[in-house]
């Protein structure tokens, strides 16, 4: 793994939010999911720039939705994980698990 394809913490949170929300989600629900589950304030700009970076790395793919069925309805840029993105999340979780082995007492984990 090179530095450019390393999974950063916020990228990890965005990928996990996409997994939680399912294919076809977009920026606002991703931000809301991270804020609700991680308790972290997130700007939409941070989410959208991260989505562009994740797509450039091949970990997500995007498409434009049909416009909302209301006058002046807008399309949304929807996303889903690629198989490479899912592999990246699995590997990151495995690495974190290995690093945390035996630290329950130190970290005060259940």
TrEMBL record:
Positions with biased composition (Basic and acidic residues): 75-84
SUPFAM superfamilies linked: Winged helix' DNA-binding domain
Region annotation (Disordered) ranges: 65-84
Protein name: Helix-turn-helix transcriptional regulator
Residues annotated as domain Transcription regulator PadR N-terminal: 15-90
InterPro entries per UniProt: Metal_resp_DNA-bind_regulator, Tscrpt_reg_PadR_N, WH-like_DNA-bd_sf, WH_DNA-bd_sf
Highest taxon listed in the record's lineage: Bacteria
Cited Pfam families: PadR (PF03551)
């Amino acid at each position: 793994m090179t530095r450019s394809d390393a999974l950063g913490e916020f990228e990890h949170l965005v990928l996990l939010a996409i997994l939680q929300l399912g294919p076809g989600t977009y920026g606002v629900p991703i931000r809301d999911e991270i804020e609700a589950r991680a308790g972290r304030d997130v700007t939409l700009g941070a989410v959208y720039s991260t989505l562009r970076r994740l797509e450039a790395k091949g970990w997500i793919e995007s498409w434009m939705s049909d416009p909302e069925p209301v006058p002046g309805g807008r399309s949304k840029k929807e996303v889903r994980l690629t198989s490479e993105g899912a592999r990246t999340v699995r590997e990151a979780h495995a690495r974190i698990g290995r690093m945390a082995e035996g630290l329950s007492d130190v970290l005060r984990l259940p």
